[in-house]
Amino acid sequence: MAPNDSAETSEATGTVVGRRKAARYIVPFAVAGVAAATIGLVPALANSGDPDLPDITAQELIEKIAASDEQQLSGTVKVTTDLGIPSLGGLAGSFAPDAGSGGSSADPESKLMELASGTHTLRVAVDGPDKQRLSVLGEGSEYSLVHHGDDVWGYDSASNEVYHAESDGNEHAAGKAPEGVPGTPKELAEKALAAADDTTSVTVGGTAQVAGRDAYKLVIKPKQSGSTIGSVTVAVDASTGVPLKFTLAPSSGGKAAVDAGFTQVDFAKPDASSFSFTPPKGAKVTEADELEAEAGKNGAADTARKDLGALEDFEGLNVIGKGWSAVAEIALPGGAGLPAQGSGDMPAQAQQFLDALGDKVTGDFGSGTVFKTRLVNALLTDDGKVYVGAVTKDALVKAADAAE
Description:
By secondary structure, the chain is an alpha+beta fold. Helix content is 22%, strand content 32%. It is built from ten helices and 19 strands. It has helices spanning 27-38, 58-67, 91-95, 97-100, 108-111, 185-194, 288-297, 299-312, 348-357, 393-403; strands at 6-7, 72-81, 118-127, 131-137, 142-148, 151-156, 161-166, 200-210, 213-222, 229-237, 243-250, 258-266, 284-287, 317-320, 327-331, 358-363, 366-371, 377-381, 385-389. The longest helix has 14 residues, at 299-312. It starts with 5 loop residues before the first strand and ends with a helix. Keywords: Membrane, Transmembrane, Transmembrane helix. It comes from [Kitasatospora] papulosa.
């Protein structure tokens, strides 16, 4: 069993994650979505064995992850997310009903957001940077996202609808899940390590067996108080250095907030048929540019997209503090806070969703609403500022007061 060696890290490997503009939701849903976005930090570890492996230091294990270059793999991934929020499936249409008209149930932007809550089984296959397949298995149905060269296909078997986009070298159409949605264990581990700095303790916490493979456990913990994150554990394949599984343990205790890892994995070259796709007979095929054109016809929805686009590009972003207790301050476009309750500006389902999460708070900054999850909390002030971080409610209020 490996010793509990520690290492302080100021730099770690990072990754460029392809993302497409979310642009289908108005600001309140964007705020709630920040919680889903931050789960990219971490996932979960279930120890099914304790193999006897050669000793390794934390720095050596980090370097092993960075050096891993497995271009081909296939397997099954189980993802369980428990952030303490209602299911996100279908809520996008409630927050922006006009934007949903003329859309496609096979559009990955909304379909894969369902992974941000509940338990899901995925099948994945990768053959280099130009061939990937991700399938979400449902009860009697399946959703598949296939990237092959310049083509990205989404297929929802339940509705027999197809979504098609041409990447043209655009990373946003590279066939990956929207940013913030749990991806492969490797992508998630790289995000966690990229966030490590001198506020972080990184140690080797023993060994495990994951998906039938021997692995080391890399344990990442905050040194600071006030964080909602207790620890992150990454199971790293002892042979290849590929992250196989992780655990995010919230500081509040209880079960993992996010659990994502392989239950079966094979590093052989996947069959070429995994990356071929032909729309089934009778399927409704929607082109990505058609959706964009339709969106442009809807003035209100288009305005919301532009507003959220500004938020995604971090205009007006100010970071308060550092490390695990850092809080991001974002000035919303137009200085607009949440619609007043009973004003009729928000659908009832959306209002119920926000009420279930929100606590009214006051301070030197004025007044606002804190939206709580087990991992990420966000304060939306009445004058249209957002303070968000993996910190407690009191830490958010303190940050907002300090910013005034």
